Amino acid sequence: MKNQLKVLSKALFTASLAILLSISTVVTHAKDISATQAVQTAAVEQQAIVNINKSTFEQLVTLKGIGETKAQAIIVYRQQIGAFKSISDLTKVSGIGEKVIDQNKTRLSI
């Protein structure tokens, strides 16, 4: 029974991720800012603290080792499982390991 629930949970997670990734493509291209503003914004974001329970897609992708797919996976995890209880819980998200956490440890919060 537990194995069936795990398989069902993973299938639901995968399906949700696929849907949200399709939607995110449109969202990521919705903003139109100048090149100078983009560079300035990126510099500020590279230093900003990212709350893994409240951060937006755009904030998550500023983390080292977190691209669009992993950022969306973090959001889907929060929606399906709930809030992260610790920063190390990020490793429960597929594709995120200790290396990513170590690279971003000064910028991560709960």
What does this protein structure show overall?
The chain has 110 residues and is mostly helical. It has 5 helices and 2 strands, in the order ααβαααβ. The mean pLDDT is 83. It has helices spanning 2-28, 35-45, 57-60, 68-80, 98-104; strands at 50-51, 108-109. The chain has a two-stranded parallel sheet.
Task: Quickly describe the structure.
With 110 residues, the protein is mainly α. It is 56% helix and 4% strand.
Class per helix and strand makeup: mainly alpha
The number of E-state strands comes to 2
Distance between the termini: 32 Å
Along the chain, the helix and strand elements come as: HHEHHHE
Keywords: Signal
Protein name: Competence protein ComEA helix-hairpin-helix repeat protein
GO biological process, one term: DNA repair
Pfam families: HHH_3
